[in-house]
Amino acid sequence: MKRLPLLLVTVLLVVFPLWGANSKLLAPGLYQVTSLKGGNVLFYVGSSGVAVVDSGTAPAEGKTVVDEIRSVTDKPILYLFLTHGHPDHVQGACAFPEGTLVVGSQGLDKALLAMEKARQALPARIREQRETVERLRKENAQGILAEEKRLQDLLEEEKEYGQSPIPLPELLVEGRITLSLGDRNVEFLSASPSHTSDSGVVLFPSINALHTGDLVFSGIYPYFDFEGGCDSAGWIAQLKKLQAWSPRLVIPGHGDLGGAEILQAQATLLEELRREVLSARERGLSREEAIKSIRTLPSDKGLRWPEILPRAVDAVYREMDRKTTAP
Predict the structure, then answer these.
(1) Which of 40, 234, 268, 275 is an S-S bond match for 193, by CB 3.0 to 4.6 Å?
(2) How far is Cα of residue 222 from the mean position of the Cα atoms in its chain?
(3) What one-character-per-residue DSSP string does 3-48 give?
(4) Residue 41 shares a structural domain with residue 187
């Protein structure tokens, strides 16, 4: 095998460092931020600036992302693509510098406004929960451990929300948009309905890479959010569209990176889930009975987070109810 000249290797490492303290190079200009608790976060460096996909679970993680970008390049952060409105993907956005253009699908603004309303209500909820815990302690009453746990959960939620509101998207996309980083383009595509009613994906055409947001959970049971507009039939249809592009590198919302095969694996699991739920309905099972009866799927061997399956069955059953009763 031919070796690259030492000078060329040196130049490549200067232009595209292999990693910073918390990131690794996936393809020319494309980095994954590592050591985050939530979903897979990327940044893409072009000649005129940087694009970022998702922001981490909390303001502290957003700061980690920004710091990591700064360890690789001093170019401005031009775009922050938020793939959908779940907290583990958007709560780091408040740590990004002013002037960053926040981009998302139609409906993302509504999800973030609801999140901001919940953030503003947290201090009052924490105060009430503290009063409940103090009263139970004085009374030496039963249930104190559960109430203390509820208080700790609220305090953790407050930490994840932070003190600053999540910036609302300035650019809401319905369809497809191409944005420039100088010598490279980035494409954002609305992909709803699917995992949520405000989902989108990010395509890096020059390196044939795709960040799917939570349309793909690789090696993990997918999370279902019925209230957030989850639509399993639409989800499968969107995955089929993505497969038609034959991406070389696929970065899922959660889990291990792969190629186009992880798009197919996700579609197969969703199709199996829909068949099982439809079969339960045809046998006259109620939603609660279906949840109890569907304990596994043919292709779920080795998937992490199996405790999500009952939630998935519940969401798909309710989705089918909704579509059956729709005018």
Answers:
(1) 234
(2) 11
(3) PPPHHHHHHHHHHS-S--TTEEEEETTEEEE-S-SSS-EEEEE-SS
(4) yes
Residues 201 and 178 in one domain: yes
pLDDT for 37 equals 85
**Bridge partners, residue 103, by sequence:** 81, 171
**Same domain membership, residue 53 and residue 134:** no
The C-alpha atoms of residue 248 and residue 260 are separated, in whole angstroms, by 7
- Note whether residue 142 is domain-resident: yes
Q: Are 155 and 164 in contact (CB under 8 A)?
A: no
Nearest to 106 by CA among 173, 39, 187: 173
Does the bond joining 247 to the residue before it have cis omega, within 30 degrees of 0?
Answer: no
- Domain of 188 in residue numbering reads as 15-108+166-325
Q: For 212-264, what is each residue's pLDDT tens digit? A: 999 999 999 999 999 999 999 999 999 999 999 999 999 999 999 999 999 99
Query: How is 250-302 classified by DSSP, letter by letter?
Result: EE-SEE--B-THHHHHHHHHHHHHHHHHHHHHHTT--HHHHHHH----TT-TT
How far apart are alpha carbons 317 and 288 in whole angstroms?
10
Helices 261-282 and 232-243: crossing angle in degrees, nearest 10, is 150
Please report, for the chain, how many H helices and E strands are present, in that order: 9, 14
Q: Count of alpha carbons within 13 Å of 268, Cβ hemisphere only? A: 13
Task: Look at the pTM and tell me if it is higher than 0.85.
Answer: yes
Q: List pLDDT tens digits, range 48-87.
A: 999 999 999 989 999 999 999 999 999 999 999 999 999 9
Regarding whether 286 and 153 lie in a shared domain, the answer is no
Assign 60 to helix, strand or coil: helix
